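User:
Note these tokens:
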Amino acid sequence: MRPPTVEIILRVGTALTFAGHGAFAFDRKPGWAAYLETAGFSHDVALSVMPLIGCLDWLVALVVLVWPLRPVVLWAVIWAIATAAIRPISGEPVWEMIERGANWACPWALWFTLRRRQRD
């Protein structure tokens, strides 16, 4: 049975978000080291961890797109909220977090969609 259209849209949206962010992390996007430094990493460690984070983001994107496991989708929600929240914590305006609401709202809506489908 084919998943409903809304679920497909949420899966694609979540996967694209994580694929794009994974690419930026893998390429060590300038400025992102500061977010990891706010979390307690040294600059050098932050730069070395970023490609690992990028690979994890790509894995999340692939799983969500191909076989959306609810624990992975829940991780996507938590990670997206954390990465949005680190911006004002690191000194950027709160609007930087608000602007990224879709990054966590999309996987959160997907999680609820999958939960409802499992119960039905």
